[in-house]
Recover the amino acids of this structure.
């Protein structure tokens, strides 16, 4: 995938179908009195930074068009808010500093909301959370969490998956590995009954080896990935948070997710987001 760190592509947000790819076009949206209240670099325009090789969340396809889950989410959000969406690509390690100093309005490439990052930028409500997948040999009888009782479950040491397994798989023998590769080798070799991987890693192994995902889980203790915003963009953040709630409620979120994240079950996302949004009803989040 080509990394176009200097390119700019402007999207005509109102013309994009949910199931389609983001295309290149000059937008004619000029904003309104309401959009003028948003703290954007250019009135009426949301300047979004993405990493161009973060598929399925954000990437540039062979036709030099932006596409992906985060691209489509922000296309829909800005369309509903009456903002023109302008997307630029940058290397990942420069994206947050650029937003923090006001060189761009927002960033999105499955970026996790952490305490360390909150020291310089702010975040919207989450739009995605990493799924953890119990992966088993294809012929295994394991189908749900109760089936792990008395089984040897492999995890990567000091990972969130390990913490989750220690908390919830108390009837299992937890076996620790220093890295992902030896964990999978143990599963393939039969020395453990199941391996607990991040969703994307599990999907990779399922596509290449004789294994399957028995079930998936979401760690409710994390904040998930969200839209990165400047710390002083209070009006913009509140408007985006309200729009995210509406998109979850009216089914738009599910449609976008199933279009772009085809290897993961949408239900854990819906459950996580519904619960998280209910726990944080104030759109001033995270400054409640």
């Amino acid at each position: 995938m080509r990394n176009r760190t200097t390119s700019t592509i402007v999207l005509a947000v109102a013309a994009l179908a949910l199931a389609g790819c983001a295309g290149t076009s000059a937008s004619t949206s000029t904003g309104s009195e309401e959009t003028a209240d948003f703290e954007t670099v250019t009135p009426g325009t949301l300047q979004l930074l993405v990493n161009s090789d973060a598929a399925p969340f954000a990437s540039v396809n062979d036709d030099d068009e932006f596409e992906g889950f985060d691209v489509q989410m922000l296309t829909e959000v800005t369309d509903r808010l009456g903002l023109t969406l302008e997307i630029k690509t940058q290397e990942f390690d420069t994206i947050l500093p650029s937003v923090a100093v006001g060189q761009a309005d927002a960033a999105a490439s499955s970026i996790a909301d952490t305490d360390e990052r909150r020291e310089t930028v702010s975040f919207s409500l989450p739009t995605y959370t990493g799924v953890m997948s119990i992966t088993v040999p294809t012929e295994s009888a394991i189908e749900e969490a109760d089936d792990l009782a008395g089984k040897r479950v492999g995890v990567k040491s000091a990972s969130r998956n390990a913490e989750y397994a220690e908390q919830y798989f108390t009837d299992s023998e937890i076996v620790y590995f220093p890295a992902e590769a030896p964990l999978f080798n143990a599963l393939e070799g039969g020395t453990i009954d199941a391996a607990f991987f991040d969703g994307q890693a599990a999907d990779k192994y399922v596509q290449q080896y004789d294994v399957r995902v028995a079930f998936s889980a979401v760690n409710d203790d994390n904040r998930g990935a969200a839209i990165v915003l400047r710390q002083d963009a209070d009006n913009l953040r509140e408007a985006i948070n309200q729009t995210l709630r509406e998109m979850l409620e009216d089914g738009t979120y599910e449609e976008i997710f199933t279009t772009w994240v085809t290897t993961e079950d949408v239900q854990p996302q819906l459950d996580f987001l519904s619960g998280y949004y209910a726990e944080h009803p104030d759109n001033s989040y995270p400054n409640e």
Confidence is low (pLDDT under 50) at residues 1-33. The longest helix spans residues 234-249. Residues 8-129+223-279 form a domain with the D-Maltodextrin-Binding Protein; domain 2 fold (CATH 3.40.190.10). The chain has two domains: 8-129+223-279, 131-218.
